[in-house]
Amino acid sequence: MEIIAALFMDDIELRSVPGPSTRIDLGGIQFSAPAPAPAPVTVAPHLVVLVWNPPEGKEFGALEVTFDFHDAPAAADGDDEPEPLARNVQPLQIEPGKFNYRLVRADLEFDDYRTVVATCRIDGGRAHVVPYTLLPPVE
User: Which H or E element spans position 25?
Assistant: First the structure.
């Protein structure tokens, strides 16, 4: 299975068209947003991950999404990887030759206005990275 796109968004709608074929309409694609209140604040943006399973692909897999601050320091215990801000793992079952999507939502706690990076992987494979920047509230 392969991730073909991952985006933060407000809305998703599926519709059928002749063929048979399906259209996915995404609304409110975003890479930043104003905070709903002054920091510290918790936000829960919606991430959609679009996945394709090639005709020779296996039917089952696992999607893992970790959320980390872009400028996060290395972990204190000497590991190369810092502890993630949030993590979501969910099973995938997609017929070979088909597409599907998964919605991922995490409560992200911001102590300041900065960028979070969502790192998406299937079965520990290649990373697909999506940034999300929290901006100061609009007054």
Answer: strand 21-27
